[in-house]
Amino acid sequence: MSARSVGERIAYYRSATRPRMTQQQLADAACVALGTIRKIERGERGVSPPTLEAIADALGVDPSRLLSDRGAAMSRVRDALPAMSAAIAVYDLPDDGPVRPLTTLHELVEAAAAWRLAAQYTPIARTLPGLLPELLRGYHAAAGTDRREWAGLLVRAARSADAVAYKFGARDLSARLIDLMRWAVPEAGDPLLESSVAYVRTETFFAARAHTVGLRALEAAINASPSPDDAGTTAARGALHMRAAVIAGRAGDGDAADAHLSEARKLGDQIREGVYCGTAFGPDSVQIHEVSVAVSLGDQYAGRALDVAQEWKPPHDLPAERLSGFYIEMARAQLWVGRADDAFEALKVARHIAPQHTREHPWVREDAATLRRLKRADAEELSNFAEWCAAT
């Protein structure tokens, strides 16, 4: 990794902030000496992983965006997966250890949720292996109503950990984390949190290609969800309908997909776009799922996906994970209809929005490999992209 190239990237992202961040402000935010920042930006010294992550956090970008060797950030995430697995191996009998105040733990859990929505998986991988055992210790030591709060924190933290496990292909660990959520959520006594766990549980059905069973599980969760009487309950049920529409598409059940999408649209029109109980929902999210459902139904529905995108573009302030997913799915639809150049442009947009999410997405690898064989884009740029995402 070239110190100069990393320094140049740091200087670029610092200058791109609005208002423009000075070197002193970056140094203060990252808790790094001003002289160190200056030397790093001039390429006169290297950057250790902790310093790089502190600078990335201060800039509000994923550390992988600052690296010339993007694989280093990915390696740190993968290296954390065994530690995350060990952290939940004894969920019912955690080791002794310290437990910080609840206010501190709330802040860490909320930060992890924000990283998940922003598709910034490196800080999650850095934080969760230590945070999960601490939450388990607190949960088991608590009694009565206090345990509810601990259970809710544990479920939310496990969801952030699951995002890393699932996106990076650790499907067994993902399934175990989802089991942990399902074990703890009844104690939380929060119907909205139960709905969010049912939403996340769908990953196990996607991974197993058990789409019909997954649809049945989601429809049961919809029936058990609270009546949509306010923004929170409306979003909870609407998100389940969105998820059901996608898995119905994967099951080849177009009628069920359309029915669930219609219900999601009705509910989405009742509230503002936002993040509710850890899940983005609203009119824009439903519109994105119009594309998701069309792509899930297969290449014969590619025109339906493209019709949506022709008349509408998602707003830039949506969570990065959802926004990059839209462009990944658009790329697939464009490739199906022979628009290879447009497909490659969509993949590049997804990479710009959320590099880690894009790089680890199996469809990106498949489509980049197809584009490389077609040789329809700039050969060098396409080869670099294919190598970046390990397309074969």
Would you kindly provide a written description of the structure presented here, covering whatever features stand out?
This protein is an all-alpha fold and 392 residues long. The chain has 4 domains: 1-69, lambda repressor-like DNA-binding domains (434 Repressor (Amino-terminal Domain), Orthogonal Bundle), CATH 1.10.260.40; 78-188, no CATH class; 190-297; 310-392. The chain has helices at 3-16, 23-30, 34-41, 49-59, 71-89, 102-117, 121-141, 146-167, 171-188, 191-208, 211-224, 231-250, 254-268, 283-297, 302-311, 320-336, 340-353, 355-360, 362-374, 379-388; strands spanning 274-276, 279-281. It has a two-stranded antiparallel sheet with strand order 1-2. A hairpin with a 2-residue loop joins strand 1 and strand 2. The protein is globular and about 60 Å long. The model has no long low-confidence stretch (mean pLDDT 91).
Q: Can I get a quick summary?
A:
The protein has helices at 3-16, 23-30, 34-41, 49-59, 71-89, 102-117, 121-141, 146-167, 171-188, 191-208, 211-224, 231-250, 254-268, 283-297, 302-311, 320-336, 340-353, 355-360, 362-374, 379-388, and strands at residues 274-276, 279-281.
Count of separate DSSP helical elements:
20
User: Low-confidence stretches at least 5 residues in length (pLDDT < 50)?
Assistant: none
User: End-to-end distance, in Å?
Assistant: 24 Å
* Shape, per Cα inertia axes: globular
Order of helices and strands: HHHHHHHHHHHHHEEHHHHHHH
Major sheet characteristics: 2 strands, antiparallel
Structural class: mainly alpha
Q: Using DSSP, what is the number of strands? A: 2
Q: How many structural domains in the coordinates?
A: 4
Radius of gyration, Cα only, in angstroms?
21 Å
Share of β-strand residues: under 5%
Oligomer: single chain
